[in-house]
Design a protein that fits this description.
Chain B: One of its GO terms (molecular function) is GTP binding. The complex is a heterodimer of chains A (633) and B (214). With 633 residues, chain A is an alpha/beta fold. Chain A is built from 30 helices and seven strands. Chain A has helices at 6-15, 33-50, 57-70, 78-85, 93-102, 104-108, 112-122, 129-141, 146-173, 178-191, 204-213, 216-228, 233-241, 312-329, 332-343, 354-358, 360-386, 402-415, 438-441, 444-447, 461-466, 468-471, 503-506, 508-514, 523-532, 542-555, 566-574, 587-591, 594-597, 619-627; strands spanning 263-267, 276-280, 305-310, 395-400, 424-430, 452-456, 489-493. The longest helix of chain A has 28 residues, at 146-173. Chain B contains eight helices and six strands, in the order E-H-E-E-H-E-H-H-E-H-E-H-H-H. Chain B has helices at 21-30, 75-78, 93-97, 99-109, 133-142, 158-171, 173-176, 205-208, and strands at 5-15, 43-52, 55-64, 83-89, 116-122, 146-149. Classes of the chains: A alpha/beta (633), B alpha/beta (214).
């Protein structure tokens, strides 16, 4: 497994991006016809297994039709592929997989098919969440670690960027095309994600047309061939990332929507990626967890992560109330008793201690407000996602407590729309104060392409208490599994990790691990370190960080290639201003190209400018971290 | 109409390249014949519902490619098949000789042993016959298979081949019942001793199991 050399594949694109007159054929077509057939058939079977719902059949058929063309298979195989995609012949899947695994080209480089599928999926400038789920599935069928896919996506992103640079250079060289260049630049600027604002995207058509008119196809053809065949890079880029550029961060709520007072996206990372993650915090506490981003410090789902900042005022009020209850008014013994009553499963018989009920008014008001607001925010988020402000790429939503409630209502709202499919990849709801009846979750199957994770804690008495008015008669998702029979739904019992509702923020790194979301490697021990100190130290522990980089990449479990391991070392030692985090550049990040590998601002919200009461993170830091990657070039 | 379908059967067509597997299927499903039919890529798939003894059966027919380069793919289709049609060309002895290889493959990859096999000698409309009908019959008996000679071009025996195969599968309840227990449709009374409808068929149940017939 550890034999193939990634650098050899990447170098040609990096070192000599312009391989003029020598457009490379996407690697999938190099396979023999029989193996291309097996490849397509395996895709068809996988699609039918992943998306058996009738409403998805149009996507499956379209995907297979496109793939047959892409692989230059004769059209005669279409009926067969449709049969595979509609669920017939599934018993042959493992044979197809074995055939492919025996293929000499794949033996040489098992990533060929992943790479090919990726370029196929991106060719129209859209990255459908379902396509990504399929690629993940295929990747695992072909026994390639999923980290490789992340890496591949980064490589693609890099080559897309290069295409853009290449294009502007080419245009400069040619005086004839000066006219065009101005046009180019305009579109480039849009594509470069520098303009903010809430322009509606999804503009493959709108953007591609002028580019083609400018004779761009030829230019792109030669340079972009290395990665994308004949795909028009800019159009792809722009469409993927949204013409609004920063996309989500550029999003401004134009007018007050409904009852929402605050709704902004804060970047958690500096990088760009072909898929993004949006996290939603459930409340704002005091101290370390007073910012929206704080609980998510360990999250490494993608290199482009956003945190939704919403209704800070009320969430802070709520957080304070929650803490008040915990710290003062309910004794430790009472808490334990409550927890065990909950765990024993006699929720209905639970009588709340008088001491709790007397302080109920402290919490009930902010809770009620937030409960209401979270639903509104969720609906608003749904419309943002539906209008593709984030670009045409898959989104993963993660939220705890009321943040999970935001996701719940977001999914619910999306499910009512026609074009809701293929946007959301995974949805992770942790300790969600929402209805846990399967029938309410059923519509989510349409919206979510990958996994729907319900992380619950049976002993979460606080959730049960604050949600008590409804929790007696209803099933609460945050307290018990959602019994929906679907491959997407995963119920994770977090009872052993979460001992109280407030732990969702404090133990997020462990929770994320438990539900199978990628976290920064080596975080757990450092997380403890951090937790023990009141505020994160800012002095760079260079030696420690550097020495641990080896260790962490081992823990990553995806050690394929020793070569790129050097990169994180460089990054860590030169990366001041982030004490513990640097090793957070995980294997895939570390191996990527330096330009982006820096990705320095994992945690703009935890900063030395502490004491700033601004719950939205420290603005000083955001700017500082951008410059904090010297020595990388 | 799906409600009165008794069961869905998976049928597989195998045999050397160019013996007319796809032509047989095309004749059966679409009742057409194309002398210039292109070689099959990977596998072809067709569905057809037929009625045998008043029972409707939906046939999912997988027509494999005979060409050597697609040979690696064939094992994936054997799984779950209830009937196999093994085709040879009566005008090409080599396709008959190679039947042994196909039977070996069948034995290797088939997941069940009560699968119903049928041997079809195709292209009997042609003059230059190299394999005698008796030889085919003998081979079929030896390996307990059904046997028929057919011509996709003249439509001779094609329908019969599929019908006979399906009938045989339906008579072997263990083959298909397990997957369809919940459908609630049961065969009432099964007549004994049919097969006379089609003169070319060899389907005497008592003799099917004879091993080592000389």
């Amino acid at each position: 497994m550890a034999t193939w050399d990634r650098s050899s594949r990447k170098l040609p694109q990096v070192a000599e991006p312009a391989m003029e007159g020598e457009p490379q054929v996407p690697m999938g077509r190099e396979l023999s016809e029989a193996n291309r057939f097996a490849y397509a058939a395996l895709c068809g079977i996988s699609l039918s297994q992943l998306f058996p719902e009738p409403e998805q059949s149009a996507f499956c058929t379209e995907f297979m039709t496109g793939l047959v063309k892409w692989l230059e298979l004769p059209e005669a195989v279409l009926p067969t592929m449709s049969a595979f995609a509609s669920g017939l012949g599934g018993e042959g899947a493992d044979v197809f997989a074995q055939i492919l695994l025996k293929d000499p080209i794949l033996k040489d480089d098992p990533l060929v098919i992943t790479q090919d599928l990726l370029s196929f999926s991106l060719k129209d400038g859209r990255y459908d969440a379902r396509a990504r789920v399929l690629i993940c599935h295929m990747t695992s069928l072909l026994q390639v670690p999923l980290g490789e896919l992340d890496l591949l996506e980064e490589t693609f992103l890099e080559s897309l960027k290069e295409i853009k640079e290449e294009e502007s250079e080419m245009a400069e060289a040619s005086r004839k095309k000066k006219e065009n260049r101005r046009k180019w630049k305009r579109y480039l600027l849009i594509g470069l994600a520098t303009v903010g604002g809430g322009t509606v995207i999804g503009v493959t058509g709108g953007l591609a047309a002028p580019l083609v008119a400018a004779g761009a196809a030829t230019i792109i053809g030669s340079a972009g061939a290395a990665a994308l065949g004949s795909v028009a890079g800019i159009a792809v880029m722009t469409s993927l990332f949204g013409a609004a550029g920063a996309g989500l961060t550029g999003y401004k709520m134009k007018k007050r929507v409904g009852a929402i007072e605050e709704f902004t996206f804060l970047p958690l990372t500096e990088g760009k990626q072909l898929h993004i993650t949006i996290v939603i915090t459930g409340w704002l506490a005091s101290g370390k967890y007073r910012t929206f981003g704080a609980p998510w410090a360990a999250l490494a789902r993608s290199r482009e992560q956003y945190c939704l900042a919403w209704e800070a005022r009320y969430l802070m009020e709520l957080g304070n109330a929650l803490e008040t209850i915990l710290s003062g008014l309910a004794s430790m013994a009472a808490q334990e008793a409550l927890k065990y009553t909950m765990l024993s499963g006699i929720v209905a018989a639970l009588t709340w201690p008088a001491s709790l009920l007397t302080v109920a008014n402290v919490i009930d008001n902010p809770w009620g407000v937030c409960l209401h607001r979270s639903a509104e925010v969720g609906k608003h988020l749904a419309h943002i996602l539906l209008s593709r402000q984030q670009g045409q790429r898959p989104v993963t939503l993660i939220g705890f407590s009321l943040g999970a409630r935001v996701i719940y209502f977001c999914l619910q709202e999306m499910a009512q729309e026609k074009d809701c499919q293929g946007i959301v990849e995974d949805a992770v709801l942790l300790g969600a104060p929402v209805e846990g009846d399967a029938k309410h979750w059923e519509p989510f199957r349409k919206v979510v392409s990958g996994r729907i994770i319900n992380g619950y804690c049976r002993g979460d008495w606080l959730l049960s208490f604050v949600y008590r008015t409804s929790s007696v008669q209803l099933h609460v998702a945050g307290l018990q599994p959602v019994l929906l029979q679907d491959r997407r739904v995963e119920n994770v019992d977090l009872s052993s990790v979460v001992s109280g509702h407030l732990d969702y923020a404090k133990q997020m790194d462990v929770i994320l691990k438990a539900v199978g979301i990628h976290t920064k490697p080596g975080w757990e021990e450092k997380g403890l370190l951090l937790a023990s100190s009141s505020l994160p130290q800012e002095e760079p522990h260079e030696a420690a960080a550097a020495s641990s980089s080896d260790k962490t990449s081992d823990q990553d479990g995806q050690i394929q290639d020793p070569a790129p391991r050097d990169t994180p070392k460089v990054a860590t030692s030169s990366d001041s201003g982030q004490a513990q985090v640097p090793t957070g550049l995980d294997q895939s990040e570390g191996a990527s190209l330096p330009a982006v590998a820096a990705s320095p601002a994992e945690r703009p919200q935890i900063c030395s400018h502490g004491g700033s009461p601004n719950p939205l993170g420290c603005p000083n830091c955001a700017s500082k971290t951008q410059e904090s990657c010297p020595g990388l070039d | 109409m799906d409600e009165d379908v008794l069961t869905t059967l998976k049928i597989l067509i195998i045999g050397e390249s160019g013996v007319g597997k796809s032509s047989l299927l095309l004749r059966f499903t679409d009742d057409t014949f194309d002398p210039e039919l292109a070689a099959t890529i990977g596998v072809d798939f067709k569905v057809k519902t037929i009625s045998v003894d008043g029972n409707k059966a939906k046939l999912a027919i997988w027509d494999t490619a005979g060409q050597e380069r697609f040979r690696t793919l064939t094992p994936s289709y054997y799984r779950g098949a209830q009937g196999v049609i093994l085709v040879y060309d009566v005008t090409r002895r080599d396709t008959f000789v190679k039947l042994d290889n196909w039977l070996n493959e069948l034995e290797t990859y088939c997941t069940r042993n009560d699968i119903v096999n049928m041997l079809v000698g195709n292209k009997i409309d042609k003059e230059n016959r190299e394999v005698d009908r008796k030889e085919g019959l003998k081979f079929a008996r030896k390996h307990s298979m059904l046997f028929i000679e057919a011509s996709a071009k003249t439509c001779d025996g094609v329908q019969c081949a599929f019908e006979e195969l399906v009938e045989k599968i339906i008579q072997t309840p263990g083959l298909w019942e397990s997957e369809n227990q919940n459908k609630g449709v049961k065969l009432s009374h099964r007549e004994e001793g049919h097969g006379g409808a089609c003169g070319a068929c060899y389907s005497e149940p008592s003799r099917r199991r004879i091993k080592g017939f000389d």
